[in-house]
Sequence to fold (58 residues):
Amino acid sequence: MPNNKTKKDAVDSNHENLAEQIEAFLKAGGKVQQIPSGVSGQTSTSGPRQIVLSHKTS
Fold:
């Protein structure tokens, strides 16, 4: 089981990596858009809800 120092090092590394990716995105002309709370990226929730596993043949 990793010790606390190893976990902290991994977290720090992830934060640095994310910061580098964000910086590269912004330098490439990317823009950050704030999305209001409650808005979903899911386009449609309608449609069939049941899955047919097999069809009985007569």
